[in-house]
Amino acid sequence: MFSFSTEVTSSQITSDNPLFQRTLKAYTLIAEKTYGDVLEIGCGEGYGLDFIYKNANSVTVIDKSKSVLDEIKRKHPKTTILNQKIPPLNNLKDNSFDIIISFQVIEHIKDATLFIQEIHRILKPDGKAFITTPNSLKTVARNPWHYKEYNYSEINNLIKKYFEDYSINGIQGNKKTDIYYLKNKQSVERLLRLDVFKIQYKIPATLLKIPYELVNRINRNKLLKKNTSLVNSITLEDYSLTEYSKDTLDFFCIMNKKSN
Description:
Elements: H1 17-30, E1 36-41, H2 49-52, E2 56-63, H3 66-75, E3 80-83, E4 97-103, H4 112-122, E5 123-134, H5 152-159, E6 165-172, H6 175-192, H7 205-226, H8 228-233, E7 240-243, E8 250-256
Parallel strand pairs: 1-2, 1-4, 2-3, 4-5
Antiparallel strand pairs: 5-8, 6-7, 6-8
Helix pairs in contact: 6-7
């Protein structure tokens, strides 16, 4: 059994269900698009691997947590595991992968420019990379686990430095998920009223992580208790891929590496 923070969305924690389904949606969108040699960067507990393996010849995963990688290797023995912090993507050769997947990772990375550059380097010509990241306009409080969250212009400017051919769409919810989002936002805002001096924005992120974890987990459990049927009823079908709009929860980016 893993120990998950509120930052790591878990398939094993009931109160995480709305966020888990939202994150899992991205994997369903790429399930039919995987082929050849596939790399996932920041795989977490590996709940997307069944989708990734659907059409792949080989799968490599990278994560900084050795314990989750060991469990992935136990469940999927054919998987190549790499335990490292990134970027750079050490020990991976140029033009190595047909498909690269990195969901909800880039917001954690300080040198995001190098990250995108490295993805471009190790992609094979005509290969595709899929990344998702939260839309900063939908954030309700500072997340100390995120180095930077992006708006549309920022993620667009970052990608176009290395990719000429790309698209940025959005994963968004429906009326049901909108209700959950609003209830969560209202609950967080009530808690933030206690932060009269806006300390959350003044102290280093490392000092904020522990109180963030405690308050966020309490908040999610409270939302579950008060809205059990709503939290449990949210499924993959409640999220969809659309053009970017004010309702976009996560950016869904596809980057194509042109052949020379």
